[in-house]
Amino acid sequence: MASRAASKSKKRAAKKRVRVPAPARPQAPQARPVVRAGGTGRVYAYALGTALLLGALLVGLSQLSVHQGKTGASAGTPSGGVTAIAPTAALLDGIPQRGNTLGSPKAPVQLVEYADLQCPYCSLYSRDVLPTLIRDYVRTGKVQLVYRGLAFIGPDSVSALRTATAAAAQNRMWNVVELLFANQGAENAWVSDGLLRSIVTAAGASPTRVFANRDGATVTRSLQSWASSANANNVTGTPTFFFGRRGARLERLVLSTLDVSQFRAALHGALHG
Q1: Of all residues in the chain, what percent are helix, strand and coil, respectively (each to 5)?
Q2: Structure pTM?
Q3: CA 262 vs CA 37, 127, 267: distances in Å
Q4: Which residue has the higher pLDDT, 55 or 201?
Q5: Does the structure show a pLDDT above 50 at 26?
Q6: Residue 193 pLDDT
Q7: Residue 153, exposed/middle/buried by CB under 10 A (0-12, 13-18, 19+)?
Q8: ∠ at Cα 45 (70, 254), nearest 5°?
Q9: Closest C-alpha to 22, from 67, 49, 53, 58
Q10: Could you report the per-residue pLDDT of 49-69, keeping only the tens digit for each?
């Protein structure tokens, strides 16, 4: 897409508040893809749908399940099965997890990611960039990763994020998140309770505990906190990244492409600057 179209898309991005999705959201509207300009190239992002950005933070008003009618196996994975179980386990095995963080709590630099679990470019980052960052920066104790989930693309975003967030209590959120990205399917047509149970089990967490807690107050507070943080930092699309020294104000990572070299440059500067 030409830079002129990118500029127009950026100007049209709504500057409104992110609303935390309640446990129930029947027929959520579609998110709209945009191109966000950065430097001389481009970064693809999913814009926060304006219909989901309106109103105050109204949570917990409805306790109806967003998962009604979706208890079968996912059509988004081969034979309804979960893929990438072994590679995901190998990627994350032995790395400290606590809640939504991955890596040593003493790491001098943090890299924060805002992402929707249905965002295809977030999945691209997960596949093509994240493994190198984990190998070179997280396992070596230099960088701690922080995941802040948003759910605006539709009901599958809500159920997936609530499930992944509930797994944080067992320090398995990152395993669930990465397996969801690896098994991502057609928008709002792939997340089922069957798939989620399989992924949670493959991630090494208790699906009984996760499903009991995913619509609870603790998960809702996490989603509310991440949405508030996204609003405060003017996050209008995913994936969006911030980085910096621990304890200092984090800086937005402006990317021209989802290439690992740009992440390397930013993290190197934060580590040695």
Answers
A1: 40, 15, 45
A2: 0.78
A3: 15, 16, 9
A4: 201
A5: no
A6: 97
A7: buried
A8: 140
A9: 58
A10: 433 333 223 233 222 233 333
pLDDT at 19: 58
Residue 242, CA distances (Å) to 79, 145, 230 in order: 38, 10, 11
Distance CA 119, CA 238 (A): 7
DSSP string over 121-140: HHHHHHHHTHHHHIIIIITT
Spatial separation of the C-alpha atoms in residues 86 and 78, rounded to whole Å? 16
Residue 20: its pLDDT value, please?
57
Q: How many helices (H) and strands (E) does the chain have?
A: 10, 9
Q: Which amino acid is at 156?
A: D
User: According to the model, what pLDDT value does residue 273 have?
Assistant: 82
Token pair for 129:
């960039």
pLDDT digit string (tens) for 118-165?
A: 999 999 999 999 999 999 999 999 999 999 999 999 999 999 999 999
| 190 φψ region: left (φ > 0), alpha (ψ -120 to 50), beta (else) | alpha
* Cα gap 129→125, rounded to integer Å: 5
161 phi/psi in degrees, rounded to 5:
-70, -40
Specify the pLDDT at position 21: 56
**∠ at Cα 108 (88, 258), nearest 5°?**
50
3 state SS of 167 = helix
The residues, ordered by sequence, that sit 6+ positions from 74 with a Cβ below 8 Å of its Cβ are 80, 183, 185, 190, 191, 192, 194, 195
